[in-house]
Write a structure and sequence with these properties.
Layout: H1 3-10, H2 17-22, E1 26-31, H3 42-45, E2 48-53, E3 56-62, E4 68-72, E5 86-87, E6 96-97, E7 104-105, E8 111-113, E9 134-137, E10 140-144, H4 159-162, E11 168-175, H5 179-186, H6 231-237, E12 242-248, E13 251-259, E14 264-273, E15 277-281, E16 286-296, E17 299-308, H7 315-323, E18 326-327, E19 332-333, H8 345-350, H9 362-370, H10 388-405, H11 416-421, E20 428-433, H12 437-450, H13 453-460, H14 471-478
Antiparallel strand pairs: 1-10, 2-3, 3-4, 5-6, 6-7, 7-8, 9-10, 11-17, 12-13, 13-14, 14-15, 14-20, 15-16, 16-17, 18-19
Helix pairs in contact: 5-9
Length: 485
């Protein structure tokens, strides 16, 4: 990749070409739990926090009427910091007041009061603060940072947003690196055989599928000669994956095959949702949808949304496990460049391929992302066959930048008709037949969905279920962009 292309793809602040593309999509900007007084006591007094997203400094708050607001941090009067603003009580109509001169703004950015102005002044009618729409979905607060005079597409009815609170959990973490390298690590199907390789296996019965860092300790669906294999063994022993790519209207489906024998193959199905989200299986019945949200050019938040199709998730335990490796208030990982990501050469010889712990595989990905530097120099890389998904995604991103610069729509979920039809997407991890593997995994995924009581209930109450096999093709035919590599 040429240096100027790398610069184009990684700079995302206001006024940049790539930033203009990313602003066409919904992004998580906070966990809903960050406003829970039981977890963050300061929120009982004042439900407001600062956030930095796509290089913009913003204030996120919940007003007295329960409405969410996301406003520019600098007051439009004379630039004072609205993060110190007063939240008016319900009896005063709610809203956020700047303490400098008392100007008040509603969650939609409209100036509602300029109390120091003369009686009868209509100044506030002409003033509107920068504001962005916010929706609470799937344990996160989503925001759309598109143009002030434009309307956002609907939030897609992905599984992570449809699941009830009992079957979902959300968490996040901060990485000191650019958004694109964070996303590219996640959509790389080959790295799991090396970066996350464990040199020995554990008793499958002793591992909870929701445990932090245990993703590759649980079992794959299916058997080899009557024996269930842990994913650790599959990833370790079969390190030359065969990668297939199927375009979808909202991104890319990846089918990664690791042939075990002449009759059996391991099938892992994951997704890239353009521009910065991947969807992967945690276990047979739990899926992770992970967003990568640029803070600025050099920092990225990942947001993981866990969705169970079987038993309820123990959110308290999942949170407690992850908090061992996380520092509040900004959800910064405990380890990093400052302590060499907890690297242990003895562990690297005897326990893990990387040598950075078994209990939190997030630090494995963190090392891969951050050790490249805050912005990876892609002009020096040498890509191989297993990098086909990375190359395909970059082509789409470059085309999207060109399209938006020329007044065309951004692809995929930025388009209302695509967002309305988006569903799932289905993930899978299992050992099945070498011949007919595709029909087998699709049937298995349908069975998982058919057994999910909450999913069937939401379908009966009016949510439209669109299969990837049929609905995606229909949307692709009607979408000008197609949204796929």
């Amino acid at each position: 990749m040429r240096a100027e292309q790398n610069e184009l793809l990684t700079r995302i602040g206001p006024g940049t070409a790539c930033g203009a593309v990313l602003r066409q999509y919904w992004h998580p900007v906070a966990l809903l739990e960050e406003f829970d007084p039981a977890l963050h006591p300061e929120m009982a007094e004042r439900p407001l926090k600062t956030v930095r997203v796509l290089g913009e400094d913003l204030v996120l708050f919940k007003d007295a009427g329960g409405a969410w607001g996301l406003l520019g941090r600098a007051c439009p009067h004379r630039g004072a910091d609205l993060s110190f603003g007063r939240l008016d009580p319900a009896e005063d109509g709610g809203g956020l007041r700047c303490p400098f001169h008392g100007w008040k703004f509603g969650p939609n950015g409209q100036c509602l009061d300029t109390p120091a102005e003369p009686a009868g002044s209509r100044l506030c009618e002409r003033v509107r603060q920068v504001s962005y729409p916010v929706q609470a979905q799937g344990g996160v607060l989503l925001a759309w940072l598109g143009p002030q005079d434009a309307s956002p597409p609907p939030v897609p009815a992905l599984d992570c947003f449809r699941a009830p609170a009992s079957h979902s959990f959300a968490f996040k973490g901060l990485w000191n690196a650019n958004w694109l390298q964070a996303f590219e690590v996640g959509i790389d199907p080959a790295h799991t055989s090396y970066l996350h390789r464990f040199l020995f296996d554990e008793d499958l019965g002793a591992i909870g599928s929701n445990a932090a860092g245990k993703q590759f300790r649980s079992a794959s669906a299916g058997e080899v000669e009557g024996e269930r294999w842990p994913m650790t063994r599959i990833m370790r022993e079969f390190g030359k994956p065969e990668i297939h790519m199927t375009p979808t209207p909202w991104g890319l489906q990846l089918q990664t095959l690791r042939q075990i024998s002449a009759e059996r193959t391991h099938v892992r199905v994951t997704h890239g949702l353009f521009p910065a989200t991947f969807v992967i299986p945690l276990s047979e019945t739990v899926t992770i949808t992970q967003y990568h949200v640029p803070v600025d050019d050099h920092h990225t938040y990942w947001y993981s949304l866990f969705t169970s199709f079987d038993q309820p998730l123990d959110a308290a335990s999942m949170r407690a496990q992850r908090m061992k490796f996380t520092q509040l208030p900004d959800y910064r990982p405990v380890s990093g460049r400052h302590d060499r990501w907890r690297y242990n050469p003895q562990e690297q010889r005897t326990q893990t391929y990387l040598g950075m712990g078994e209990d939190d595989i997030n630090v494995h990905d963190q090392w891969a992302v951050e050790s490249m530097g805050s912005i990876q120099d892609r002009s020096r890389e040498h890509l191989g066959t297993t990098d086909k998904a990375i190359m395909a995604n970059r082509r789409v991103l470059l085309q999207a930048i060109d399209d938006v610069q020329n007044g065309k729509p951004a692809p995929g979920l930025a388009q209302a008709e695509v967002a309305r039809a988006a569903t799932g997407p289905d993930t899978f991890d299992g050992i099945g037949p070498q011949n007919g593997w595709e029909a087998w995994w699709r049937a298995s995924a349908r069975d998982k969905r058919d057994r999910a009581a909450w999913l069937q209930a939401s379908t009966r109450t009016g949510a439209t279920e669109v299969s990837e096999a049929t609905g995606a093709a229909e949307v692709a035919a009607s979408s000008a962009a197609g949204g796929a590599p």
